[in-house]
Design goal:
Elements (H helix, E strand, L loop, with lengths): L6 H27 L1 H15 L4 H22 L5 H22 L8 H13 L9 H4 L4
Helix pairs in contact: 1-2, 1-3, 1-5, 2-3, 3-4, 4-5
Length: about 140
């Protein structure tokens, strides 16, 4: 009632920031640490063997990496959250397809936590995300 901290809103903050950190560092590693060419070299031959056109692989990795990086950055302070979540959701669909082509999808150690956090944030009403820049600047 008179609590300064709203626990359900804090849960939304916690999940949003954790998801942002996960995607930020996933994108960061793909862009700056392993480089796009390093990621491409890991998956390219398997994807080509399974019928994915070679000309789609590099652009897909670039787009996916930048979506993860930029949207991860946006989620941490809660800026343009709805758009970031939608882009990350589409990105996860692409990742699910790509990983299903390369290896069995039931090996979901990296995919599933991100998926659960994302679905949670998409289901929770945006009005619950009071500790965000979207809320501060009335962008919801």
């Amino acid at each position: 009632m008179g609590h300064i901290l709203n626990l359900s809103s804090f849960a939304v903050l916690l999940v949003r920031v954790l998801l942002g950190i996960l995607f930020l560092f996933q994108g960061y590693e793909k862009i700056f640490k392993f480089k796009i060419s390093g990621v491409e070299s890991v998956y390219k031959s398997d994807l080509i063997k399974r019928g994915i056109p070679a000309f789609l692989i590099r652009p897909s990795i670039i787009i996916s990496s930048w979506i993860e990086f930029v949207c991860g950055i946006l989620l941490i302070p809660g800026l343009f959250t709805s758009y970031a979540l939608m882009l990350l959701g589409l990105n996860l669909i692409g990742a699910a397809v790509a990983f299903s082509v390369v290896r069995a999808m039931w090996d979901m150690q990296y995919f599933f936590p991100r998926f659960l956090f994302l679905v949670f944030l998409l289901i929770v009403p945006s009005a619950s995300d009071i500790y965000s820049l979207d809320n501060l600047f009335c962008l919801k």
